[in-house]
Every structure is written in C-alpha cells, then in structure tokens.
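Record Sulfite oxidase-like oxidoreductase, 198 aa.
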Amino acid sequence: MMAKFFQKPGVEMSDRIPPGQYEAKGFPVLTYGSTPEVSIENWQLRVWGLAKEATFTWSDIMTMPQNNFTADFHCVTRWSKLDVQWTGVKVTDFMQHIEVNPKAKYIMEHCYGGYTTNISLEDFWREENFFAHTLFGEPLPPEHGGPLRLIVPHLYAWKSAKWINGLEFLNQEELGFWERNGYHRRGEPWAEERYSGM
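=>
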C-alpha cells in the first residue's frame, strides 16, 4: 500500500532526497488539530517583539514583488515532494518593510489556530525562503496552509508554518509547539535533525 503513494529514491536522487526520506507521488496533508478557515479580507500578518510593530494586510502582501518558486519539500515524517511550484513573496523582499532590532536573533512564527514554531533569524532571512499564496497555479488551499504560509526549503516542513499570522522577534530561542513536544530545535533534513537529542 505504501508503494502506491511513496517510493524509495534511487541512487540518482541522492542529491535531492535527504537520508531516510521517500519520494511522495502526491502531496500529503498532515495537520495537528483543525484547519483554520481565514478569508483574505480578514487575514493579517503582525510583526512585534524586537522589531518595530507593524501589521500587514493581504493587499500589502500583494503589492510586494511577486515571484514564482520551485522548491523541494521535506516532511519530518519521512516523505519528500520534489519540484513543488509556488508563487509568493521572498522573505528578503518582505524584510525590507520592517525594522528589526540588532538584538534579535530568533523568531517565533505564530499562526491562525494557535500553532507556533521557532526559527533562528539566520535560517529565516535567506534568499530562497518565501511566503506562498499560490500552489501549482491555484490559490493555496487551507489544508496546505492558505491563504498564506511560510516556505523554508532547507529545513523540515514543520518550520514552514501554515496559516501564518505573526512574527515575534526575540533575543533568545524559545521553543514552538512541536519543539516543546520532542522535535529538534532546528530541523535540518540532510542531518536528519528530526527529534531532540539527535
């Protein structure tokens, strides 16, 4: 049954699929708890903590430069989806609209529904990271994190927060939901940083 949805990668894919991962033939949906339904009219992204407080509406996000991205997506539950096509806003472009205190070293990502996950500022503020609102040419569906989610391709997917609505800038690391429940603080797929202590 597993072979219907996942396949073990061949040697030729060793530079694309991290150790211990299987290639997903579809795009699985894994969510803890219920899926929030947030309209673009009501959606907001708030910035606070060690950054000048600001609130961005959907219109604010859509007036920023829009880009198409193709990125591999690695889930800690051992599947990888290759060449996922997204549209959205680069983190580096978004960061031009906020003022961050030099003391900030970490971020807590906050989401509709109460989910949180931590990320270092160094891992967040990278050219390849982006906020996505479109998946394979269609508006990002709620089950995949719509209307907007963060995508951090170089870390496991739980760091790519669905339904994002807040960025809290911090001077020290605080743990998010899964990190408090045994997941690794950083989550780098090629090092198999799945769980704490690994």
